[in-house]
């Protein structure tokens, strides 16, 4: 199969491209960075250097593909992240139609079924809607749960204060996912014949309480007293802003965690639980400790 992978050599796209190449597929990786081309080619894939902001480039790149994996590259500097997602979503939709692609796998997020109250995930909700309007395609929405790697952002707080402070309590049970499990699911979807229509696939690796997360990470880094400390929404936003995040981005992140606290983010996940992936919390804790 000829498969297009967007997302350059990111945490999901790189293992996904690697897996697809190993399976014998012809893989093209889209990247906006020319200096990534040698590394992409070293994987055995072709590099398409250009911007997802360019619908003409995307249409040309997608032409002849049997399947495409679509993700919206993070861009924290944009003034309006939701408008940015919508713009890239429309570019993808236009390119798919112009290129005649029939199999599409979109990286979305849990909580994307909601049209309000989920902060930065609202962009994924919008892209889901945009792609759903493309006729005659087999579209799979991949909805991974909370990324283990989000925990890396708390390393500074752990070092400075010996806590993980988030605006939901330690008793909250959360579904977490590792990027390798997402890549595995994406590879399955891209290479499995699917009739036209819409399917949704949730991806999770483990389900644990926030207190258990603190215990596992603390044990791994030699801080067994590491605690998960609940913050108010205001405290959460203030902390993010004080560490250099723009106020609107801070509010988006706080809203995501609020929706975890209320249960809204995971309500549809709870109705469509997947088989859990391979990477458990204790496995990730070793990765965290190595980076810490």
UniProtKB/TrEMBL annotation:
InterPro entries: Ergot_Alk_Oxidoreductase, NAD(P)-bd_dom, NAD(P)-bd_dom_sf
All copies of domain NAD(P)-binding, residue ranges: 7-113
Pfam families per record: NAD_binding_10
PANTHER family: PRESTALK A DIFFERENTIATION PROTEIN A (PTHR43162:SF1), PTHR43162
Protein name: NAD-dependent dehydratase
Organism from which the protein derives: Hymenobacter coccineus
Lineage, broadest ranks: Bacteria, Pseudomonadati, Bacteroidota, Cytophagia, Cytophagales
């Amino acid at each position: 199969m000829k498969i297009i992978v967007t997302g350059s050599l990111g945490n999901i796209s790189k293992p996904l491209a690697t897996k697809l190449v190993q399976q014998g597929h012809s893989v093209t990786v889209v990247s906006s960075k020319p200096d990534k081309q040698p590394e992409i080619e070293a994987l055995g894939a072709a590099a398409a250097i250009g911007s997802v902001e360019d619908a003409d480039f995307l249409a040309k790149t997608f032409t002849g593909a049997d399947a495409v994996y679509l993700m919206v590259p993070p861009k924290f500097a944009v003034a309006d992240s939701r408008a940015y997602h919508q713009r890239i979503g429309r570019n993808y939709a236009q390119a798919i139609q112009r290129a005649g692609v029939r199999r599409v796998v979109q990286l979305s997020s849990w909580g994307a079924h909601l049209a309000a109250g989920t902060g930065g995930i609202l962009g994924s909700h919008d892209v889901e809607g945009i792609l759903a309007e493309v006729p005659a395609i087999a579209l799979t929405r991949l909805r991974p749960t909370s990324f283990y790697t989000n925990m890396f952002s708390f390393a500074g707080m752990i070092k400075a204060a010996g806590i993980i402070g988030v605006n939901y309590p330690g008793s909250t049970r959360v579904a977490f996912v590792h990027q390798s499990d997402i890549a595995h699911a994406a590879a399955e979807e891209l290479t499995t014949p699917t009739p036209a229509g819409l399917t949704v696939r949730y991806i999770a690796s483990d389900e644990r309480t926030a207190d258990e997360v603190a215990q596992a990470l603390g044990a791994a880094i030699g801080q067994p007293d590491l605690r998960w400390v609940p913050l108010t929404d205001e405290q959460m936003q203030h902390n993010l802003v004080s560490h250099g995040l723009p106020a609107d981005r801070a509010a988006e992140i706080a809203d995501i965690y609020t929706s975890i606290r209320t249960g809204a983010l995971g309500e549809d996940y709870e109705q469509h639980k997947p088989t859990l992936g391979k990477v458990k919390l204790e496995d990730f804790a070793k990765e965290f400790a190595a980076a810490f």
